[in-house]
Amino acid sequence: MNRVAASVMAAASVLTGKALVACGLRRAPDGWRRTVGLLLRSEPTRFALSAFALRAPPAQSGVTGDALLEHRAAAALLSYLATQSDAHFALEWHPSVTIRRRTAAVDLVVMDFDESGALRAISPFLSDAALETSNPSLRTSAHEAIVTAYNRTRLLPERDRPNALRRLVRAHHADRDYSRRLLDAACLSFERIDVSRPAERFRPPEFHKRRSLGFGFLTFVMRPDLAADTVDVWVSAQHVGLDGVPLQELVSGLEQAWGVAESVVYPSADPSALFMEARGCSIEGERAVDEMLAFVDFTPVLLLRQALNARYAASLRAPATFGAVLAWLLTQEPEFAGVRIASTVDIAASAGYARDVDVVALRPADYAKGGDPWEGFAEFANEFTRLVGLSRLRTSPMRQALSTAALLPPAVHAQTVRANPGALDDTFGSLCITIIRDAKVFVSPMTDLGLGHGFFAIGNMALPASGGGRVTAVTIKGERGRIGAHHAALQRAIARAAAV
Known about the structure:
Radius of gyration: 23 Å
Strand content: 15-25%
Largest sheet: 8 strands, mixed
Distance between the termini: 59 Å
Helix content: 25-40%
Number of domains: 3
Shape: globular
Oligomer: single chain
């Protein structure tokens, strides 16, 4: 009976919402931000980007000339984030959904971890200098309460942790305004490694062992090179706060603002081995997810794309994208045969909506015709192009479906999704490929439900390799135990491209 009542209420919400939208009394909701707020609430759903060999900024006002590199970098990062509109968000964690809210300022908290991942101390860098200098005993009390609360909650699933942490802080510290500023802040920690060793330098930090204070959506890890006076920068983001391409623009802006001290050379492609074997990146109580990293040479796929665009020039509405060619290749591998593959599309702000993302999901096997393995590719590429065009106009079938679903109350929406997780693969696909052209090492996100075949994140395809030539960093996330053969399948797809 309760289920019937819930269904009736859901239908009423959608019908009423549609009527209000049609009458101009309500704007269609932001379906993308609602969807990620429902489906990306655990630690492994975060994604990360990187920048290498950034020059350590000179001392800022209030920082003494002999200050540690870390202090200078933290102060300069705070100054940079203050200028970035996309950094001015904090998260709110509700029972069924995570949402973002605008903040007037950006603060930064430096976190000092021990080897086990326990928090030892915090050092705030606040945009309001008055808060840093007023009432030292109050600040010390807040810091101690936050450190204690963090350590008591650091192994909780992410959907539960922020509010649990905040409750503990409030129970032990009276100044809620000051402590909330810290909990909303971007977070930064420093990790000492040997940057001369590629095996250490290009291996992403284990962000699930360096978690944020819960409500800020950006978590930075800097790896200093004291001799060169440089830092490598990694930043992990909660997807509700910001999407991949705008975060890469923020990282690229940091590179330009600080400068790159050296021409970084990346590991050469090794078709027979992963650069980083699968490792866990989730917290107990969350979906068990692994992540792995390879450096690959996509030159054969890029050349094949050129050849296909020439071969099918008369049939194609527009040149086929790299993503379309790679999707077609992958579904010829046994691991991905018949799989519906999703690709992400960056969507500019328009019509009163903020910048966001749409998803194009197609099953290449629906277009294959047998015989020639590329027969049917032109039709597939044309449909891919058509859907991308609709996405950029905010009129795609996916956009409309997400906006309609967002008319549901969050709790009902979440219950509907969880009641039929298999429908997610029918809607979004069971494998996602996302590409950020300017990314160095791009650590992929994941979802709490669906995407049973995992997530490929692909960065810049022209990184200089140590053995000459060009490489691309590809990270793969997926359910534990299910992605072990993905690297081999990708290499076979590249080899097939070379043989065409």
